[in-house]
Amino acid sequence: MATITTPGTRPATPDEPAGGTPRRGFAARVSLGRVFTPVPSEFLLIASTALILTGFGLVMVLSATMADSLAKGESPFEVVLKQAAFAIVGIPLMFLLSRFPVTFWKKIAWPALIFTVGFQLLVFVPGVGVANDGNRNWIQVGGFQMQPSEFLKLSLALWLGYVLYRKRTLLGSWKHVFIPVVPVGGLVIGLVAVGSHDLGTGLILMAILLGCLFFSGVKLRLFLVPLLLVVGAAAFFAVTSPNRMARIMSSLTNFDSTACYNATSGDCWQAVHGVWGLANGGVFGLGLGNSREKYGWLPAQANDYIFAILGEELGLVGCLTVLVLFTLFAVGAFHVIRKTHDPFVRIVSGGITVWIVGQAIVNIGVVLRILPVLGVPLPFISQGGTSLLSVLIACGVLLSFARTLPVRSAPATVER
Fold first, then answer.
1. Phi, psi (rounded to 5 degrees) for 350
2. What residue spans of 122-198 are helical by DSSP H?
3. What radius of gyration, in Å, describes the C-alpha atoms of the chain?
4. Going by C-beta distance under 8 Å and a sequence separation of 6 or more, which residues neighbour residue 302?
5. Helix, strand, or coil here: 136?
6. Alpha-carbon torsion, ordered 198, 199, 204, 209, to 10 deg
7. Residue 71 CA from chain centroid, whole number
């Protein structure tokens, strides 16, 4: 029998009542269901470790800076509140970015790199760029100091992922591997390592470039050439700077030597007191807030050497906890790399993982005197709002990629 409709109405659908009026309650339930759609275990692992490490970092920044703040007549919460402001912005932003599709990250790869390179050029503008310990890698905007190179790390990984993804069928030829990866990558790294004299950040950018090339599936014989170029560039930047050579030599100095033991300043002094802080902590530490080295003995106690304060106050147990958290983060990220079928996702995830996990290894290696002082922060934990914000945004990209992985459903039960 034909359906009779009156003017101004339309036939009802199975999900609507007669007269064509939509069931808004049903639509709302559908939308709410999409929000709470099950996510892969990799998503939960990356998100949870990022949140725990961020919280851990806020506690350690408070503990490491409160003594200096009180000595200056300021509130003991002066520094940690600034750090917490970046965490309050970064954590919701991380989950918001996790909802973005992969196509969005492909579209903004080029614009993001161009914008961050322009942002980095601000460090050379008089009155805007700020120098610190010989590195001109900061800008002063009002009452905030920012480090543009932190955002270059993510934009470089996205750009490399997009270019290598587009050339995935041509990567057997060295011309397509090198152009435009090496010229553009060299420009980005040169702006930081040569222009700003920040070798530590330059080395992290080099590692991101190599990581993206490796996960793109470039043949080993073609991968070795960029690797040698990176090693040669790092060696050149090191030997041409007296400050960098002094840091390298201080790491090679015998810990028991008279010159190192009697030093009252410089890299040797910092390295020695970093090791002493770890040694004083023992297995269980002196207790949260009870560090002795933070009372003027250890420079950069809240930045590059916050792991020493962590070890002194929380001991070996605290250090191992942080190492386990970074390991779990790496496991989640590598599962994304292994399970994805999208070359772009694999390449960018590899670059981000090399950046965050590699930077953590470098920072901890410096505190343990395995590596020379390079001036790179411990991700999530060290004081520095720009560093924390950029890492949380990078985690948002990883979470966005993790959402594309299949969710393992529970096995169906058969009733008898």
1. -65, -45
2. 149-166, 174-178, 181-190
3. 25
4. 60, 61, 64, 65, 79, 309, 382, 383
5. strand
6. 110
7. 32
| CA neighbor of 402 nearest in space, from 324, 345, 354, 329 | 345
**Separation of alpha carbons 149 and 391, rounded Å:** 12
d(CA 240, CA 107): 39
In terms of Cβ atoms closer than 10 Å to its own Cβ (0-12, 13-18, 19+), residue 204 is: buried
Q: Answer for the pair 149, 118: CB distance below 8 angstroms, yes or no.
A: no
**Strand ranges in 15-165 using DSSP code E only, listed in sequence order:** 129-132, 135-141, 144-146
**In the block, residue with structure tokens 């007269």:** 19
With a CB cutoff of 8 Å and minimum separation 6, the contacts of 6 are none
Q: How many residues does the chain have?
A: 416
Burial of 159 (0-12, 13-18, 19+ CB in 10 A): buried
| Residue 62 CB partners (closer than 8 Å, separation 6+) | 76, 77, 79, 80
Residue 311 Rama label (left phi>0; alpha psi -120 to 50; beta): alpha
Q: Is the pTM above the cut of 0.85?
A: yes
Residue ranges for the chain with pLDDT beneath 70: 1-36, 133-134, 241, 243-244, 246-267, 408-416
Confidence (pLDDT) at 230:
85
The string of DSSP codes covering 369-409 is TSS-------TTTSS-HHHHHHHHHHHHHHHHHHTTSPPPP
φ and ψ of 124, to 5 deg:
-95, 0
pLDDT tens for 177-234 read 888 998 999 999 989 988 778 888 999 999 999 999 999 988 888 888 888 888 888 8
CA distance 267 to 372: 9
| Dist. CA 120–CA 116, nearest whole Å | 6
